[in-house]
Amino acid sequence: MSLSRRHALLGTGITLAASAVAGCATYGRSVTPAPAAPESPGPEETTETTAALAATADVPVGSGIVVGDVVLTQPNTGEFKAFSAVCTHAGCTVSEVIGASITCPCHGSSFHLDGTVATGPAKRALDTTPITVQGDSITRA
């Protein structure tokens, strides 16, 4: 027995429709995949390679710099702080540190070198980012 072209196309269409319905059955549901087994590092491997965000000499005393998604400040000699560069007002990225003021270009918010709000509309301090200062390098903790 041979299938006509019409019957073959009809069968393909029904198969595709059934697949689409099955796919939609899980639409909107959160499907959590099984966690993968962690790989153990070898004796000479580390679990994470951490590149330096900046050298301590790059962060001026009484000011700071924006490095990617992090703001690094040095309010006092040898005292380094780090914050998310995402403004807590509307999610814009702060653009620069001018003197002792971290500024956001979107709506004019500014922050002190300790991340607290200097002028709004932001009402909440910048989120702290953990860092490690080792020698003359600043890295994420």
UniProtKB/TrEMBL annotation:
Keywords: 2Fe-2S, Disulfide bond, Iron, Iron-sulfur, Metal-binding, Signal. This is Cytochrome bc1 complex Rieske iron-sulfur subunit. One of its GO terms (cellular component) is membrane. One of its GO terms (molecular function) is monooxygenase activity. Its cofactor is [2Fe-2S] cluster. PANTHER family: CYTOCHROME B-C1 COMPLEX SUBUNIT RIESKE, MITOCHONDRIAL. Iron-sulfur subunit of the cytochrome bc1 complex, an essential component of the respiratory electron transport chain required for ATP synthesis. The bc1 complex catalyzes the oxidation of menaquinol and the reduction of cytochrome c in the respiratory chain. The bc1 complex operates through a Q-cycle mechanism that couples electron transfer to generation of the proton gradient that drives ATP synthesis. Residues 1-22 form the signal peptide. Gene3D superfamilies: Rieske [2Fe-2S] iron-sulphur domain (2.102.10.10). It holds the Pfam family Rieske. Residues 51-140 form the Rieske domain.
